[in-house]
Amino acid sequence: MSNIIKKDGYDYCFDASACSICQARCCTGESGYIHVSTDEIKKISNFLNLEIADFMQKFLFKHGYRYSIKERKCGESYECAFYNREANGCMIYEVRPMQCMTFPFWDYYKNRVDELKLECPGVIDV
Ligand code: SF4
Ligand code: SF4
Question: Which positions fall inside the HTH cro/C1-type domain (predicted)?
Answer without folding.
Answer: 30-55
